[in-house]
Amino acid sequence: MSEPRKRSRPARTTGALQQPPFGQVPRPYAPIAVLSDDHIAAIHAAALRVLSEIGMSVLEPRARDLFARAGATVTGETVRLDPGLIAECLSTVPQTFTLAARNPLKSLRFGGNDCVFASVGGPAYVMDNDHGRRNGTHAEMCDYLKLTHSLNVLHQIGGTPFEPMDLPANTRYLDCFLAQIRLSDKNWQTETLGRARTLDGIELAAISLGCTVDDLARRPALLGIINTNSPLQLDIPMAEGLVTMAEHGQVNVITPFTLAGAMSPVTLAGALVMQHAEALAGIALTQIVRPGVPVMYGGFTSNVDMRSGSPAFGTPEYTKAAQASGQLARHIGVPFRSSNVTAANEVDAQAAYESQMALWGALMGGAHLVEHAAGWLHGGLTASFEKLILDAEMLQMMQAYFTPIRVDEASLAVDAIRDVGAGGHFFGAAHTMSRYETAFYSPLLSNWDNHTTFIDRGGVQARERANTIWKQMLAEYEAPALDPAMDDALTAYVTRRKAEGGAPMN
Question: How is residue 231 annotated by DSSP?
Answer without folding.
Answer: S
